Predict the 3D structure of the following.
Amino acid sequence: MSSTTIHHPPGTYAERGFGDVGRQRTLGTFISKFIATLAMIVALFGGALMFAAPSEAATSRCGSGTCTVYLTKSETVALSNGKVPNINLGALTVPYRVLAYGHVAIAKGWVARGNCVGFTVSIKPWATQGMFGYRC
């Protein structure tokens, strides 16, 4: 039986002259993508929240960085029928409309089952977030 020897270049990355360049580039790319994504989310939802009329029928629960909003039956039906605020966000109008009408399609599925819709939003990226159906 012959033994196989694996030859590794001598030394670590830093000793071979590479330093931490790869790691810094990856971290910098991640941070810049994270900031761009965060700015887009703030622009999309911030504009919608700024111009949306307040609704007294929906109930919400907030605590420790997480908020959950429960829509009533009539609000869920209105959402499933395409009642989405017509907000002009300039260059972000098209992504907003795509996002909004995606939620309309999901709401139609929940209304067909006789359920209402709720939304959970969290400042913690690892926490559960999104749209869900519940018995109302």
The first strand starts at residue 59 and ends at 63.
